[in-house]
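Suppose a colleague, Dr. K., hands you the sequence of a protein chain of 94 amino acids and asks what its three-dimensional shape might be. Before reaching for any lab equipment, you can write down a predicted structure in token form. Begin with the sequence itself:
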Amino acid sequence: MNVKNRLQTMPLGWPLALASAGTIATIFAGKKLHVAFGAAWGILSVWHTCQHYGKMKHDLQKAQDYLRTGIAPKGQRPDAYTLALARYANHQKR
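The predicted structure, expressed as tokens, is then:
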């Protein structure tokens, strides 16, 4: 597995939770420590957003393929929310 795939699939739940708790806990402890935790929280949040965007883009493409062909990859039909997004995206293209 290459570095890009590792970064895209790395779970960020615990690091985000620790950074947010650290930011809140250091409100009165000192400005430098508070800023450091806040910066970590911000960077992890942006990273997580990029991961989520990539997953949604991939899921949307699979749902659009399903709507176009009627064949689900690996026999798994996309969920209703993703299908609704695909229908909306298809409608916007017109």
